[in-house]
Design goal:
The chain has 92 residues and is mainly α. Helix content is 90%, strand content 0%. The radius of gyration is 13 Å and the shape is globular.
Length: 92
């Protein structure tokens, strides 16, 4: 869900040319992911993964200047998906 939120949020913002709409997708997906992280792995894990989600979003912007927008989005989405899997796989 987190990776989908990062990719989907960017896609919506880009294709609709409405950045706030992309932000809504990003926020809703992040909220759904946080609830699942909390359910599966607890509050500390959810807080840490939530921070990683926000950091990935922020980090995608400077990364995009170096490697391009889509590669940056896919890179940070993959990183968040990997972190999510690593943190929650033993808990579920």
């Amino acid at each position: 869900m987190a990776a989908a939120g990062l990719v989907g949020g960017y896609a919506v913002a880009r294709w609709t040319k409405k950045r706030p709409l992309g932000g809504v997708v990003l926020a809703v997906s992040g909220g759904v992911a946080a609830r699942e992280w909390q359910r599966v792995a607890g509050g500390k894990a959810a807080a840490g993964l939530g921070a990683a989600y926000v950091a990935a979003f922020a980090g995608s912007h400077p990364l995009a200047k170096k490697i391009g927008a889509w590669p940056a989005v896919f890179s940070v989405a993959g990183a968040v998906a990997g972190a999510s899997w690593a943190v929650t796989r033993k808990a579920s």
